[in-house]
Known about the structure:
- The chain is mainly alpha-helical and 149 residues long.
- Residues 140-145 have low confidence and may be disordered.
- The protein has one domain.
- The strands form two sheets. It has a two-stranded antiparallel sheet. A two-stranded antiparallel ribbon has the order 2-4.
- The protein has helices spanning 4-19, 25-28, 37-59, 66-88, 97-106; strands at residues 63-64, 91-95, 116-117, 134-138.
- The chain is globular and about 50 Å long.
- It is 51% helix and 9% strand.
Amino acid sequence: MVNAESIKFMLQDIDAKYEERPDSQEFVRLYKGSRWEHMFAVLHEGLNQHLAEINGRAETTGHYWADRSRAMLDLLKDLKNDLYTLKRAGVDIVLDTGYQKAIERCRPWLSYSGGSAVPEGFEPIELIKYDRVFTENALVELKKQTGAY
């Protein structure tokens, strides 16, 4: 069980990590009202940029540049680690299933060095621009009630 002080530190670290990263209104507007609107906007925009580039490279050279491959892998690592941290803090975030499948399709061939060969026949990934790809689910703790009814 994570204590309240640890949760406070986790959430502060997440906020600090994304504080300096720019976002755009195009993505912020999708998450208005969410405690995590800035983080979600930054991650969503980053995913869309990479997935659009991968779609383009699949249609042309079949090679995703080395620096962009590293950036995509770093983004995926941030996504995994930060959503796990939030879950440990009691915030359950769900990634759109289409994007989850897209990540699972890309991860095996992305490489940290030399760029990444996009598999032949790679089916384009449908980008989500006007809907949320992150949703927050309430974690509910059920407590045993004692006493007669």
